[in-house]
Amino acid sequence: MNILLAVLLAYAYSPGDSSWKLVTLGNIPERAILFAELAAAEGGRSTIDLATMLEMAGRFTEAEHCYSLALNSSTDPLLSEWLENRLKGSRPLDTVIVLSTVITNMSDTDAIDISVEIPLPRSHPPYQRIEQLASAFIVEGDLMRQHIDILPSRATVVLPLILHITQQPYNFRPLPEQYPGISGSISLEDISSFIRTIQIPETETGPGPCLDIAYLLQDIAADAGLELHITGGLLIAGEDSLLFHAWNQVAGTGIPIDAVLFHTDSLRGIGHCSTDIIPLWNFEHTDGHEVSVFYPQQDIQLDISMQASFADPDFIAGLLKLFPISLISRI
């Protein structure tokens, strides 16, 4: 989360809050794009303005071309990194990702009867499909579980989950102006107002604020009668590093709301699904945790983490020997 937030804060371009007065949260009018094209003919920053406008309008191939032009002329390292992420976000994604749950027994005695839970990854139609290639877990409802009978003192176990992800850049615009709430409809402007009440930290020294902010926005929306879910996933940032991230989704619509992103880029913060952000699962079933571990011994200390990486072909070949199934399921 820290890398993305730093880049966004360093280059806070927000067409929804800029001088393009024809642009709204709900739609990207054609004449706004025409004005951007005229400005882009003069070069400079306007090329990025046009690229962003095209991306918001769902014209991803054209946006990718403009981002590429801007990247070729950029001399600012932070801007170049931002443009590289926008290029990734505008291109179709077809990749294999390894999620590794790592548990180490830090104690001097063996740990027994350990139960491990992670959320079940699910596809996000119409723009994403997830296929499970191999797994150390067993699917049980909305969760994936594994049981470890014994984990010796100072030993480590790695539980892999290998996913094939295909994803297209997608935009929900034009967004609905009204959303059904418990006691009446909630407007799109109401939703943006909820987000604006949240303060986003400008510097980070520990884990990113995204999960706490997603829970806070869920509570604020619930008070107004709007149901939001919390989605967990990954950010592709920098040199193809994968960072865990969380955001909200309007129940029953699939429309994503990213409050952290909204404060620096309001149009991408609502209803936009670029491929540098990969949704994986719903956090409602695990209280916001990627990994939950349960064990009876009070005196045992376990170090627990989940790691995400793009698949190394040799690593995958070795794992598939342990799991000799080319395709277990489509999720």
Task: Please describe what this structure looks like.
The chain is built from ten helices and 17 strands. With 331 residues, it is α+β, with helices and mostly antiparallel strands. Helix 2 (30-40) runs antiparallel to helix 3 and helix 3 packs antiparallel against helix 4 (60-73). The model is unreliable at 1-21 and 324-331 (pLDDT under 50).
> Which stretches are low in confidence, meaning pLDDT under 50 for 5 or more residues running?
1-21, 324-331
Gyration radius, rounded = 21 Å
Q: What fraction of residues sit in β-strands?
A: 25-35%
Helix-strand pattern, N to C?
Answer: HHHHHEEEEEEEEEHHEEEHHEEEEHE
Question: What is the fold's blueprint, element by element?
Answer:
Elements (H helix, E strand, L loop, with lengths): L1 H9 L19 H11 L5 H11 L3 H14 L3 H14 L2 E13 L5 E9 L8 E8 L2 E3 L2 E9 L4 E12 L2 E2 L6 E4 L2 E4 H9 L13 H14 L4 E10 L3 E10 L5 E2 L1 H4 L3 H4 L2 E2 L3 E6 L9 E3 L7 E9 L2 H10 L6 E2 L1
Antiparallel strand pairs: 1-6, 1-16, 2-5, 2-15, 3-6, 3-17, 4-5, 7-13, 8-9, 10-11, 10-14, 11-12
Helix pairs in contact: 2-3, 3-4, 4-5
What keywords describe this structure?
17 strands, globular, 331 residues, single chain, alpha+beta
Briefly summarize what is shown:
This protein is of the alpha+beta class. The protein has ten helices and 17 strands. The chain has a five-stranded antiparallel beta sheet, with helices on one face.
